[in-house]
Amino acid sequence: MEFRRSTIYMGTTAILVLSLTGLMLHAKAKVRASAPLFARKTAVVRQLELTDLCLFTEATYTRHLSMTDLSTPFQDAPLSLEHFPSGGLVGPPPHLAQKP
At what angle do helices 35-48 and 5-33 cross, to 10 degrees? Predict the structure, then answer.
């Protein structure tokens, strides 16, 4: 038995749409199930007064993005090259990048 190309396309599309729907329902159920855990973590963050998320562990100016200044990456020498890869991925905080 041989199928037409349009039948194969419609069947594949239907399977993919059903898979996507299943993935979305699964994600919604996971979010709903993790709400109490998220609430507990939020309470701990408020109680301990935690501030920023540590995205990178290499250099202080990429570790705490809100607590840096424009000259920190060049503390070794004014014309030194960036030697941490994460320094090329993030820019300075917006309040430091504004011209006075």
Answer: 50
